[in-house]
Amino acid sequence: MARCRLCGKYFKIITNTHLNSVHKCNLRNYTKKFGTKNCGFLRVNLLSKNDPRYIKWRESLKKRPPPWCKGYTKETHPSVAKISKTFKKKKIDNFARWRERMIKKGWIKINYPPLQRSEDLAELIGVILGDGNIYKHPRTEELRISSNSEDKEFIKRYDRLVDKIFKKKPKLEKVKDSNCIYIRIYQKDISQRLGIFAGARKDQKIEIPRWILKNKKYLIRYLRGLYEAEGSFCIHEPTYTYKFLFGNRNKSILENVHRALKILGFHPHKSKDRIQISKKGEVYKIKDLIRFRQY
Bridge partners of 142? Predict the structure, then answer.
C-alpha cells in the first residue's frame, strides 16, 4: 500500500485522479516533490476481484476478437510464414532491443566459461554417463538425468549438484504414466563443457578424462557417479555370496570402470555387460570408499 504524503491516506497507487480531486494538484508536481515511487496509473489487474471496475473489465475482454494470427505458426499459416521469411531476408530482429536489455540486466547469459574441475564435476560426469543424456536443439542443449521417482535422496543429491555446477536450478519433471522423473536443464554448450557426446552413447568410444585419471579423489567420485546410476550391492549370506556390480551396454564405459577399479587396487571381473567384485573384503571396501548410496 502507498501512503499519500499530502493527506496520509493509503492507496494501492497514488493516481492523478486522487491528487486532482482532493489536493488540486497534478501527478507531475507531486512526483517532483516526493518522488515517483508508487505513483502512476492504477492498472485494472491490481484492483480487487470484487471491484465493479475489475468485473466490468473482465467482461469486456470476452467481447474482444482474438488476433488474426492466434494459434497459427509459420508451418500452419501462409501469411505467418511470409512474415517470417521477410524478417529473415531483411535481417530484422524484432527482439534485438529486448535481448540487449535482458543481457545488461544479467537475465540472459551470453558467456559460458569452462566448468571448474572438481570432485563434484567428476561425480556428475559419472552419473550422466550412467543415467543421463544430452540432447541438441537448434538454439541450446538439454541435459537430462533419469531417476526412479521413489529415489528421493538420489534426486535431491543430483538436483543440488547440477544447480551447483551449472549455476542454474534444474526442473524436476515426472514422466506421465511412468515411475520415472527427469532432472533437466537447458543451457548452451553443455556437451562441450562436460566433454560428453550428445545423443545416444551405445556405440561411442568414451574415455576417462585425463584430469580425473591423474587425481584419485576425482577418480573415486567419478566411480561413485557411475555406480549411483547403474550399480548394485548384493548379499546372500546363506551362500556367502557378496557382489558389487556395475552394468552397462557400452563396452568403453565398462572398460573405464574396470581400469579405474584396478588403479584403486581392486580385482574386478569383467563379463559381456557388467563388472563385478566378489571378494567380501573388497566388496565392503569399495562400497565404503565411494560412499555408495550414502546420502
Answer: 135, 186
Are 119-194 and 210-289 in the same CATH fold? yes
What pTM was computed for the model? 0.70
Structure-block grid coordinates of residue 73: 505458426
Domain ranges of the chain: 2-63, 119-194, 210-289
Domain boundaries 119-194, corresponding CATH code: 3.10.28.10
**Domain 210-289, second-level architecture:** Roll (3.10)
How do residues 192-211 score in pLDDT, each as one tens digit? 999 998 988 878 899 999 99
